[in-house]
Amino acid sequence: STMEETDREAVATAVQRVAGMLQRPDQLDKVEQYRRREARKKASVEARLKVQSLINLRAQHECTFYFYLLILNLTGNEELRKNHVHILFREHLLTIFQYLKIVSFTLFQNNYYSCSPACLLVLLLSFPEIVRETQDLIERGELLQAHRKLMDLECSRDNLMYEQYRMDSKNTHDMNLIHTYFGDMQKLSEELAKQLWMVVQRSLVTVRRDPTLLVSVVRIIEREEKIDRRMLDRKKQTGFIPPGRPKKWKEKMFNILERTVSTRIEGTQADTRESDKMWLVRHLEIIRKYVLDDLLVAKTLLDQCFPPHYDIFNKLLNMYHQALSTRMQELAAEDLEANEIVSLLTWVLNTYKSTEMMGNSELSPEVDVNSLNPLISQNVVDQLLSKYMSTLTSNIIGWLRKALETDKKDWIKETEPEADQDGYYQTTLPAIVFQMFEQNLQVAAQINEDLKTKVLLLCLQQMNSFLTRYKDEAQLYKEEHLKNRQYPQCYVQYMIAVINNCQTFKESIISLKRKYLKTEMEDTLSSSHTSMDATLDIIAKEGCSSLLDEVFMDLEPHLNELMTKKWLMGSNAVGTICVTVEDYFNDFARIKKPYKKTMTIEAHRRVVVEYIRAIMLKRISFKNAEERKEGAERMIKEAEQFRFLFKKLAAGSGEDTEGLCDIIEAIAEVIKLTDPSLLYLEVSTLVSKYPDIRDDHIAALLTVRGDASRDMKQTIIETLDQGPSQPNPNYVPIFKEITVPTLTVPKLLK
């Protein structure tokens, strides 16, 4: 038969080969060596033949079976062959698989195997069970144990691939076969990583509730880093690196932390401007609180869960700083309102480094606020400040205009203005204006000294323009009133309030400068301050003047009675004048001191001027000495009445009220004189005291006296021109205000 022929051929070939080997006597010593070598060759050929037949029998298991054969070849271990190979070829393939699985799984459970090639087959046959068990461990959260199994599987695969690489680095088919077989392991690694990153994301919460879990995660990452280093070293030496290496889990962990920090910062904005005007303040406050809390936890708890070389606290600090810087730049780029710019800059420039945040004592010494970089660049800060100043300028102009409009509405009310605690009339205008200035200065001071100074300069600059408008409005108020003196009903009281406001404004400007301006900056504001003071003085002076106009409009009919026949006969014009003035001054008592004193002096002066003007109008010319005496005595008596009135009105102000009424008395003495030869002497005394008396005043005075001829007047006037003058140094010229009518007063008035 064919089989017998084959056997005979084989024997013949064998005899031939043996004869070839044993041609010399010394070769007999090597018989055992030759026998073993031939046995190995025979076994190899048989194995190949039997494998081929088994593959043909079980085509559906081709990949798996070939893979196991590959393992057997790679192991190169005689013991394994002796113990297992003959079984593999004797038994049914599936039965063998079951047997090997049981054996290898038992070995695996008892940690008997190592990653040495000898045990690879044992491990590989139990691969599906190990994968399932690892999956269960991950699902139960037993991450350390799961990772231990995963490492063992990866170790097996990596060693296997390395052996294949060493034997035949170009054999991609076998490499792919190993890679495919271990495909589930890659999913396991991804699943485990997913669990790790979930813990890392919640690390600041986890570290408070379950620090052990976080420590486990860090240990796993450390193990992987170690394997990464080993694999990279092997790559340098051999050129081989397993798929998926290096994993770089430490780097991934820091990336996850960085994303978590960014999300935490971004996620704190709960509101928008539409839903809440204070949205930014709230947003910044939540950020402040979160960041401080997180860093305190990181310093006290998190730091202990990581190896020192992770420098976890400083890494986190930098992440928070970077995330905050990004967020602040985003906010700065938005179309912010003035108050929002202030909130942002205050937070960025002050709050961030204050004890409420990075400067918190519990974060020291790890956090040094002086070494923290700015959250936003100086350029962005300058842009925001510039935008703030321009918005603030238009806001202040608008606020001041509105405040003045509101104040003007009060001026026409039918109720008196409110009074301060000392009883002085006022309106709310100065309080509103300076409260607004104060608020903006306090806000600016939160940011920095430089902005505070800029805002103060802006406020005072706008105040300057505002006071000019205030002056114009007060003038219009007066003009409107003069069209109909019955309206507004409380004109006098509101004009007093306007005058008093000037004093309040003056005091407020000084107070504001003292509070917010450094002494060395005083000079830069002195000119604008002087200008404002001057404007306020004009407003007050014009206000006082308009109030005195009111008085003298009411006095006019009574002043017209002075120095007339009716007056000489005993009219009570001066009594009425005094009562009217006193009545007005009951209201004027509500004027603040500096202006009230001015008012009293001015009223006193104007009464005397009007009285002298009445004399110079030549409404009467005395007929005889008796009339002259009677008229002069009446003048002296009325001068005394005025003196008494104004002394009373000026009580406590220290005003010298004597001098003005003395002029009336001096004129009365000239009129009273009975000896005409002494007239020149009397007149020259008058002129030396009051050198602003003009010739026409003397002529009018002599006309009223009624007994001086034209020649006598001429002589007296010409002689007087050469006389010396000895005025009182405190004398304020009064006659220059008094004009003398050139036409003779008609007889009708006498």
From TrEMBL:
<comment type="subunit">
    <text>The exocyst complex is composed of EXOC1, EXOC2, EXOC3, EXOC4, EXOC5, EXOC6, EXOC7 and EXOC8. Interacts with EXOC3L1. Interacts with BIRC6/bruce. Interacts with MYRIP. Interacts with SLC6A9.</text>
</comment>
<dbReference type="InterPro" id="IPR010326">
    <property type="entry name" value="EXOC3/Sec6"/>
</dbReference>
<protein>
    <recommendedName>
        <fullName>Exocyst complex component 3</fullName>
    </recommendedName>
</protein>
<comment type="function">
    <text>Component of the exocyst complex involved in the docking of exocytic vesicles with fusion sites on the plasma membrane.</text>
</comment>
<keyword id="KW-0963">Cytoplasm</keyword>
<dbReference type="GO" id="GO:0000149">
    <property type="term" value="F:SNARE binding"/>
</dbReference>
<dbReference type="GO" id="GO:0005794">
    <property type="term" value="C:Golgi apparatus"/>
</dbReference>
<keyword id="KW-0813">Transport</keyword>
<dbReference type="GO" id="GO:0048471">
    <property type="term" value="C:perinuclear region of cytoplasm"/>
</dbReference>
<keyword id="KW-0653">Protein transport</keyword>
<dbReference type="InterPro" id="IPR042532">
    <property type="entry name" value="EXOC3/Sec6_C"/>
</dbReference>
<keyword id="KW-0007">Acetylation</keyword>
<keyword id="KW-0966">Cell projection</keyword>
<dbReference type="GO" id="GO:0015031">
    <property type="term" value="P:protein transport"/>
</dbReference>
<dbReference type="GO" id="GO:0030426">
    <property type="term" value="C:growth cone"/>
</dbReference>
<keyword id="KW-0268">Exocytosis</keyword>
<comment type="similarity">
    <text>Belongs to the SEC6 family.</text>
</comment>
<dbReference type="GO" id="GO:0016020">
    <property type="term" value="C:membrane"/>
</dbReference>
<dbReference type="Pfam" id="PF06046">
    <property type="entry name" value="Sec6"/>
</dbReference>
<dbReference type="GO" id="GO:0000145">
    <property type="term" value="C:exocyst"/>
</dbReference>
<dbReference type="GO" id="GO:0051601">
    <property type="term" value="P:exocyst localization"/>
</dbReference>
<keyword id="KW-0333">Golgi apparatus</keyword>
<dbReference type="GO" id="GO:0030496">
    <property type="term" value="C:midbody"/>
</dbReference>
<dbReference type="GO" id="GO:0006887">
    <property type="term" value="P:exocytosis"/>
</dbReference>
